[in-house]
Amino acid sequence: MAWVYLLVAGILEVVWAFTMKQSQGFSNLRYSLITLVAMAASFGLLSVAMRSLPLGTAYTIWTGIGAVGAFVVGIAVLGEQVTPLRIGAAVLIVTGLVLMKLSSSS
């Protein structure tokens, strides 16, 4: 169950990163509130996952989901630039996440 909590925490990290961008520096109340709620939920679920997962594994996977997820949302929703170098960087992050998961005993 810890892995499910970690996955949801990572997805919520993407949500709060996106809504923080949409909040325009916390000047848009609706997006600001969504950001804060998603942040709190993400941190809460991460802390629950860390009860049984190693710190290095949990934190690395959480930040990796957030980084790659924000990259994908930036491209798909915000029209950010797609370049071979950016795609290569995302592939390296995902490769690191897979290796981290495979190396975990939990």
How is the biggest beta sheet arranged?
none
- According to DSSP, the number of beta strands is 0
pLDDT average, as an integer? 95
Instruction: Identify low-pLDDT runs.
Output: none
Find the structural class using helix and strand composition: mainly alpha
What string, H for helix and E for strand, traces the elements in order?
Answer: HHHH
Shape: flat
Give the number of domains. 1
Q: Treating each run of at least 4 consecutive H or I residues as one helix, how many helices?
A: 4
Helix percentage range: over 70%
Rg of Cα set: 15 Å
Question: What is the CA–CA distance across the termini?
Answer: 10 Å
- Beta-strand content: under 5%
Top keywords for this entry?
single chain; mainly alpha; 0% strand
Short description:
This protein is mostly helical and 106 residues long. 79% of the residues lie in helices and 0% in strands. The termini are close together.
